[in-house]
Amino acid sequence: MILSLLVDSLTFRYPGGSKIFSGWGGRFVPGEMVALTGPSGCGKSTLLYILGLMVKPTTGRVLVDGVDAYAHTDAHRARLRASLFGFVFQDSALDTSRSVVDNVVEPALYRGQRRRDVVDDAVALLNRFEVRVDFSRRPGQVSGGQAQRIALCRALLCNPAYVLADEPTGNLDRDSARLVLAALRARANDGAVVLIATHDPDVVAECDRQVLL
Questions:
Q1: End-to-end CA distance of the chain, in Å?
Q2: Each residue of 163-182: pLDDT tens digit?
Q3: How far is CA 205 from the centre of its chain?
Q4: Number of C-alpha atoms within 13 angstroms, CB side, residue 198?
Q5: Best exposed site among 63, 87, 132, 208 by fewest CB in 10 Å?
């Protein structure tokens, strides 16, 4: 059973910088796709990193599956990330030293699965999202739009409970963007919490609700 993702009294300040959040809170429930919006610099990406247990807040709690993740060790958060989260970063953040297909299977390896047990699923996702490249290529040999779809495949491979996407359609044409949004919607319909940081009004229109930061 997937539980809500809760944020309570969140404050964040970069070293030497001003506060981005001050006592912010929110609740994201299974089955909904939420757009995180606001002007550049308002903290959309930072909030995704905090919710995804990659950046520790200055104060406040993030409850993942009912657990205050930042009250535990880095190792505990790493296990939660591996078991529960899928990420689509704004710049795709693919490992340039590994092949396309090995980038996709990476989350499964962190969960302790064997490559041979998931590679067929990875290939099926790449085909589903029309990644029309040799899967043995390195990410530096594919276009930005293809790289973003590869990143989506990586995020969805293990059917994560929480999907965090940072401008996932930013490098895509309209048809590719529709394909990505449909996949994120399908994951939400399957009971996941899907959060999308975006400037795109078309993406916002596809979401269940909007959170303005």
A1: 29
A2: 999 999 887 888 888 888 99
A3: 19
A4: 26
A5: 132
Query: What's the average model confidence in pLDDT over 128-154?
Result: 88
Nearest one of 136, 128, 134, 132 to 156, comparing CA atoms: 128
| Tokens matching residue 91 | 């710049």
| Residues 9/23, Cβ–Cβ less than 8 Å | yes
Task: Give bridge partners of residue 161 from the DSSP assignment.
Answer: none
CATH number of 5-212: 3.40.50.300
**Paired strand residues for 129:** none
- The per-residue pLDDT for range 30-89, each reduced to its tens digit, is 999 999 999 988 899 999 999 999 999 999 999 987 889 999 999 999 988 988 999 998
Separation of alpha carbons 19 and 92, rounded Å: 27
Please compute Rg for the chain using Cα positions: 17
Q: Give yes or no for a contact between 107 and 157, defined as CB atoms under 8 angstroms apart.
A: yes
CA distances from 108 to 75, 118, 200 (A): 17, 7, 31
E-assigned strand segments in the chain: 5-13, 19-28, 33-37, 59-64, 67-68, 85-88, 162-166, 193-197, 209-212
In sequence order, which residues have a C-beta less than 8 Å from that of residue 78 and are 6 or more positions away?
53
For the cut 90, the answer to whether the pLDDT of residue 205 exceeds it is yes
Give 124's Cβ-side CA count (13 Å radius): 8
